[in-house]
Amino acid sequence: MEQHEITAAGPLLDEQGNLREPGFAKKLLPVYNRNQIRVSPLRIKEWDYYLVMNGQFGLALTIADNGYMGLDSISLLDFWEKFQITKSPMRL
């Protein structure tokens, strides 16, 4: 299954608050505007996820705001030893 690559900058959401162009971008091209979301602020889920890896190790970082709680998560992965450890403190 081939995925769609977003190659031009533009709004992330349309006038109804729906995703305008599903897909992935190699650069920060979709323009996010929280005011375009058409739900209660308690239902808005926002997060940043970063993965840095090579053939042996990986480092995954997540920073999330789920409206009613926040989460910071860090995962260290060792693909050769098939080992991972994750710490995910939550806050109100």
Describe, in short, the structure shown.
This protein is mainly beta.
Q: Element order, helices and strands?
A: EEEEEEE
What characteristic shape results from the CA principal axes? Answer: flat
Question: What is the count of DSSP helices, taking H or I runs of 4+ residues?
Answer: 0
Over all CA atoms, what is the radius of gyration? Answer: 16 Å
Distance between the termini: 39 Å
Question: Could you tell me the strand content as a percent range?
Answer: 35-45%
Strand count, sense and barrel status of the largest sheet are:
5 strands, antiparallel
How many DSSP-defined strands?
7
Low-confidence stretches: none
How much is the average pLDDT? 93
Overall structural class, as computed from helix and strand content, comes to mainly beta
Helix coverage percent of residues?
Answer: under 10%
Please explain how this structure is put together.
The chain is mainly beta. 0% of the residues lie in helices and 40% in strands. It is built from no helices and 7 strands. The protein has strands at residues 10-11, 30-31, 46-53, 57-65, 70-78, 83-87, 90-91. Strands 3, 4, 5, 6 and 7 form a 5-stranded antiparallel sheet that branches. A two-stranded parallel sheet has the order 1-2.
Topology:
Elements: E1 10-11, E2 30-31, E3 46-53, E4 57-65, E5 70-78, E6 83-87, E7 90-91
Parallel strand pairs: 1-2
Antiparallel strand pairs: 3-4, 4-5, 5-6, 5-7
Key phrases:
7 strands; five-stranded antiparallel β-sheet; 92 residues
